[in-house]
């Protein structure tokens, strides 16, 4: 009964908050949560499209930071420092209660209410100069709603499912609505979004410091995500593939944003990796934030992951021991032209034999992302250590989707669709014309036939020059690494599980600190129908020598994966 009252309060609470943001409704009085609507509340002018969409983005700003923090702090790649707030510590320890500011379902429903209001009231028949005025925004807002519902379910489990705007207090009774879990939400929105999966985005040009094209989550990609959560793996792979290869907008993964050793003596590092976090081709979706609290909602992620004047250099989150172990366990492969013998494609000796410091062993992406130095010039009330997390070197946007995220989910979907060699090729070689060559034999003829067009990429747009395996972004030439292979295993299912472990590791190496890890572990555990898969990873966040058995036991029960819906 207490939970139902809390949900009722959550739904009632969004009535005034969400409706006011549309600018077309008013609360009956300053202290009331009841809403009165004008008789004519149709959205029927081009200006309505812009104002409504920006209003929804404003609501999404409220959940932007927690989207990252809830997904990152509950995973295995990040550890909190002694300076972390009690609220962040509660999240990391799976102890967040109703008083925790990051545990507020009302903020998600505020986004959903705004979306429902627009979708119910937009005049979809309105046409100006042969174009339906609301068509592009309608597709975008349907996608926003689906994305927000997915975040809500990932954090709270089963949630009240509402697709019409709440117009009065009586509508906020949760018993009126079904409770949908992640799979049910995925199934609903796959069908809801399909008619709009190739609708063009609206383009408002530059607003402030932002290119508005990054405000949108690609609808076809979200359908792929939903299919992945629903266990519809081949469909997921098809949607990711079709997004990456769409005629006129092909998206090769790129080959330039690597961090690598320069020269066979391992003396210097060439680091272009951090540049990818501001690349227009790599960063696809962001939630724009304000630069000052005076202007609106700002992001505090930089103050969590970096040393700033605001936190007096006392950063609150850093890389975990588990992340250290994973990164340093990777095998770096350097290929060079030998200056003595003049032989090309010479593979250097094992790097570990050179006795370099631990932070430079194995995969170099962690070293590129996290940088710690002494802050000798700091005043006495500042920390003597200064950390920079280059994924948060920007302050006015929260990144939600990158191109490599899509490639990793594409590999995950291929693998679960029974195509482990193709999935592994995404990690090791990259998929382009030469990868599929019969002479190379990277992917067996049998699997190529079963994969069909799921692994077909234009030889004109996807080439060796712009396509590499994701593992090569930090581990050298993965395509030349003879240890980075699928071993001979008894069954295809064994190969699928092996490759899935490699994909899981690659997700960690590529997306650490971005707020995806906990949800990735959740999804892989659901694929395997094994909650201990997630529990074991998270319990080892402090290293294999410091396994948290209490946390393992707690997370072995799926009921404890979620925040309380209060």
Looking at this protein, list some descriptive labels.
globular; 10% strand; 18 strands; two-stranded antiparallel sheet; 566 residues
Characterization of this structure:
By secondary structure, this protein is α+β, with helices and mostly antiparallel strands. The protein has 18 helices and 18 strands. It has helices spanning 2-21, 46-72, 86-92, 105-121, 135-156, 182-193, 219-230, 233-244, 301-305, 321-328, 365-369, 403-416, 420-428, 445-451, 492-511, 517-528, 531-539, 549-555, and strands at 25-27, 35-37, 78-80, 127-128, 131-132, 159-160, 179-180, 206-207, 210-211, 259-262, 268-271, 283-288, 317-319, 335-336, 346-347, 370-374, 385-389, 397-402. The strands form 9 sheets. It has a two-stranded antiparallel sheet. A two-stranded antiparallel sheet has the order 3-13. Strands 4-5 form a two-stranded antiparallel sheet. Strand 10 (259-262) and strand 11 form a beta hairpin. The longest helix has 27 residues, at 46-72. The protein starts with a helix and ends in an 11-residue tail after the last helix. The relative contact order is 0.13. Mean pLDDT is 88; it is low at 15-40.
Report how far apart the termini are: 12 Å
Which geometry do the CA atoms define? Answer: globular
Residue windows where pLDDT falls under 50 for at least 5 positions: 15-40
Output the radius of gyration: 24 Å
Protein structure class: alpha+beta
User: How many helix segments?
Assistant: 18
Largest sheet: 2 strands, antiparallel
Q: What is the tally of beta strands? A: 18
Question: How would you write the strand order of the largest sheet?
Answer: 1-2
How helix-rich are the residues, as a percent range?
Answer: 25-40%
Mean pLDDT: 88
Strand content: 5-15%
């Amino acid at each position: 009964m207490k939970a139902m009252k809390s949900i009722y309060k959550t739904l009632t609470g969004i009535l005034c908050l969400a409706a006011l943001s549309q600018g077309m409704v008013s609360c009956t009085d300053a202290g009331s949560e009841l809403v009165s609507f004008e008789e004519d509340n149709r959205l029927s002018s081009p200006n309505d499209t812009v104002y409504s969409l920006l209003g929804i983005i404003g609501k999404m700003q409220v959940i932007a930071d927690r989207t990252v923090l809830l997904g990152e702090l509950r995973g295995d790649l990040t550890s909190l420092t002694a300076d972390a707030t009690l609220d962040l510590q509660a999240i990391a320890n799976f102890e967040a209660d109703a008083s925790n500011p990051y545990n507020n379902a009302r903020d998600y429903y505020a986004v959903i209410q705004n979306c429902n209001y627009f979708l119910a009231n937009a005049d979809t028949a309105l046409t100006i100069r042969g174009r339906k005025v609301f068509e592009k925004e309608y597709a975008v807002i349907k996608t926003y709603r689906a994305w927000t519902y997915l975040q809500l379910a990932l954090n709270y489990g089963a949630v009240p499912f509402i697709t019409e705007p709440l117009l009065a207090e009586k509508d906020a009774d949760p018993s009126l609505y079904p409770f949908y879990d992640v799979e049910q939400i995925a199934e609903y929105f796959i069908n809801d979004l399909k008619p709009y999966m190739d609708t063009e985005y609206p383009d408002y040009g530059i607003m402030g410091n932002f290119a508005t094209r990054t405000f949108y989550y690609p609808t076809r990609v979200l359908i792929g995500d939903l299919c992945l959560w629903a266990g519809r793996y081949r469909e997921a792979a098809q949607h990711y593939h079709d997004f990456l290869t769409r005629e006129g907008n092909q998206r090769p993964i790129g080959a330039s944003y690597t961090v690598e050793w320069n020269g066979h003596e391992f003396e210097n590092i060439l680091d272009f990796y951090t540049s990818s976090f501001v690349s227009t081709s790599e960063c696809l979706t962001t939630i724009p934030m304000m630069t000052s609290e005076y202007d609106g909602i700002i992001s505090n992620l930089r103050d969590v992951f970096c040393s700033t004047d605001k936190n007096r250099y006392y950063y609150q989150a850093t890389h975990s021991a588990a992340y250290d172990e994973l990164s340093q366990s990777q095998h770096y492969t350097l290929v060079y032209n030998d200056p003595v013998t003049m032989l090309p494609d010479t593979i250097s000796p094992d790097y570990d034999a050179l006795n370099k410091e631990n932070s430079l062993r194995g995969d170099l992406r962690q070293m590129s992302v996290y940088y710690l130095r002494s802050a000798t010039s700091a005043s006495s009330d500042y920390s003597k250590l200064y950390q920079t997390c280059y994924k948060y070197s920007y302050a006015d946007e929260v990144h939600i989707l990158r191109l490599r995220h899509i490639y990793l989910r594409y590999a995950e979907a291929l693998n679960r669709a029974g195509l482990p060699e193709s999935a592994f090729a995404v990690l090791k070689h990259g998929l382009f014309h030469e990868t599929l060559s019969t002479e190379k034999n990277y992917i067996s003829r049998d699997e190529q036939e079963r994969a069909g067009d799921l692994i077909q990429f234009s030889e004109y747009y996807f080439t060796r020059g712009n396509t590499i395996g994701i593992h090569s972004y930090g581990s050298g030439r993965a395509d030349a690494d003879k240890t980075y292979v699928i071993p001979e295993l008894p069954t295809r299912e064994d190969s699928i599980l092996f490759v899935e472990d490699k994909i899981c590791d690659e997700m960690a190496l590529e997306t650490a600190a971005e707020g995806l890890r906990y949800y990735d572990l959740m999804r892989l555990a659901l694929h395997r129908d094994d909650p201990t898969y997630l529990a074991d990873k998270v319990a080892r966040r402090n290293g294999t020598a410091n396994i948290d058995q209490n946390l393992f036991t707690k997370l072995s029960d799926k009921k404890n994966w979620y925040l309380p819906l209060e």
